[in-house]
Amino acid sequence: MMTTAYLSLGSNVGDSYDNLQQAVRLLHELEGTQITRVSSIYETDPVGVTDQPAFLNIAVEAETAKSAKDLLAACLDIEAGLGRKRGIRWGPRIIDLDILLYDDDIMESDTLMIPHPRMHERSFVLIPLLEINPGLHHPSLEIPFSVIQEELGDREGVRLWKKNPGQQLNNFFDL
Hints:
alpha+beta; 10 strands
């Protein structure tokens, strides 16, 4: 059975655009997983630790046969394979992959919380996510993400870097 999952990807170390492309390619190549939409790329101000370079962020929609736990393991493997070293929380990173939503499921374990516990507080997550699916709602808050983003009003720290017309995977690699 296929599940629709939404992920957020970010990078601010090295060639961030290349890091995002490699991560999307590796996600798309996962057995039983297909990337169906990719947002435009947004340059975003860092949150938490602000003395670091700006990030490039995207959101992707994936159809996957993987369980949420197996998808998380695959994301962690991709991060490690691309050279991510865990250090300072909210610090610089070569790549960051977060599962935002897994259908409308609500899950909480020691290693995985779905929906992502801070996604509704972050315009750098919501703006790309709403670009690829403006009709999404927060499964536990039961509020449309468009309403949440409107209430946040925090758009200054999120700037369009490169447009991905039609949110197609192939277009993303041609940007």
